[in-house]
Amino acid sequence: MKLLAFIPILLVGLLGATSSQASEYPKVTGFSAYLLNSQTGQLSHDVIKHEDGLGNVPASDFASVSTLVVVHVALGPESKLEGQVQLEVTGGGAIFGPRRPVRRQLLNHVSRMGPIAKDGTTHVGFWLDDTGCETLTLKATVIVGSTRASKKDVVPFACYE
Q: Which end of the chain, N or C, is more open, meaning fewer C-beta atoms within 10 Å of its C-beta?
């Protein structure tokens, strides 16, 4: 009789474990950001975690005013899900114009996800114009059906004039 009482508890535990595993996906696992060198057309290394800061980028040796942001998404192993990624980017004033104390939205765009790797990852790229002096705040939201997951990060641009 005690065994019969234990079975519902075991089932609830197993169902809880399954739903917690399912709830870990989808998720935004991170960002990469690459500067386009205005003089050569080459992309830089990933600057999202740049240790030395990104001061005066438009006038630096790398001279860039455009940035490719890549959103890294995890959907779970062997996933066949389809969905969208929305990227919102806010920053300060235009790099060649007067500084503005008010934040402005540089991008609010939704893009569909492309092919998904066998490990359940995919990447979505977004192009940003007029970048290089003001810190950018990135917020990506992955949308699969009615499930949403978001993550934030920054690109630490700064100008010192």
A: N
Predicted TM-score of the model (pTM)? 0.78
Q: What is the pLDDT at residue 103?
A: 67
Q: Distance between CA atoms of 37 and 133, rounded to whole angstroms?
A: 15
Residue 149 has pLDDT above 90, yes or no: yes
- In this prediction, residue 73 carries a pLDDT of 94
- Is 60 within a domain? yes
| Neighbour-count burial of 70, counting CB atoms closer than 10 A to its CB (0-12 exposed, 13-18 middle, 19+ buried) | middle
DSSP assignment, residue 56?
A: T
Residue 75 is part of a domain; what is its CATH number? 2.60.40.10
Task: Assess if residue 9 is contained within a domain.
Answer: no
In a domain, 102, yes or no: yes
Whether the bond between 26 and the residue before it is cis, its omega within 30 degrees of 0, is: yes
DSSP for 84-118, written as a single string:
EEEEEEEE-S-SSS---SS-EEEEEEEEE-----T
